[in-house]
Request: fold
Amino acid sequence: MTRLIAFLALLLAAPVMAQDQLPPAPYAYRQLEDPAQEEKAQALMETLRCLKCQSQSIADSDASMAGDMRNQVRQRIKAGEEPEAIRAWLVERYGDYVSYKPELTTLTWPLFAAPLVLLLLALLLLRKRFVRRPDAPAGEQA
Amino acid sequence: MSAPDEKPKGRKWAIWLPLVLFGGFFVLVMNGLIRPAARDVESAMVGKPLPEFALPAATPDLPGLATADFKQGEPRLLNVFASWCVPCAAEAPQLDELRRVQVPIDGVAIRDREQDIARFLARYGNPFASIGKDDISEVQLGIGSSGVPETFVIDGNGIIRYQHIGPIMEGDVKTILVEFDKAREPL
Reply:
């Protein structure tokens, strides 16, 4: 039991202690010299998930790993790589989870189809309501 | 009086529907709160070759680490760690145990300083054959690792065969050994 508690305490302590002493990577907090490139990098970074603080993008996060990911993104953009190629590089390593950009895949299509289906269903149901039935008294129309 | 009463009679149970829906929703939310889903991000690189890298030595006593070191025909463990990471200290005895049964282990020190690594190894023991210093998490990102510590089984052809997320605890040693033996057979 003591060991379990000690281990749980370790798990809790990890984020607190996870502070390294190294200075950040070159492009973690520095913008690219070319504004057009920086704009591309920024747009991409806002749609990439920080793997440490998982509901933040790497553009928002101060985790050192997010800094290293920004450095990676900016250096690749600087080298002329296309943003979508960098996204693909990360997805190849971490799966779709790393990208915030919605993708239409065999897994996600119901998310895109459901609103359309519901809309059609609603129209179908309402259609009857909009038709005035000749035999019904006018007062009972919904 | 009787006419309006009769109409909804068939659907009397429907009055309970909102409560049932609420109950279902409540159970769902409480379940998510009490047993949150795992937040581990598994590497998609298992089954794929290691990326090309060549890291400088992290301590004066041990060599650095490069992709070529993993292509010598025998499987090895690649341990992603850091001296500033507390769970990494917790797995030190287990790494030592693995080394004692002839499992070669190489380390990748993430965002670490030489003096801190030296102090860490002096305090918790040194199970590593070599340690590469990764100051910009280049190798970590390259192999799809999302934290420290993580341990990868690499086969003799440099193919990533297994990923262990988090510290290796007592119960994990066996799994690691099994995966290590599996990695003796090429894919």
Notes: The mean pLDDT of chain B is 92.
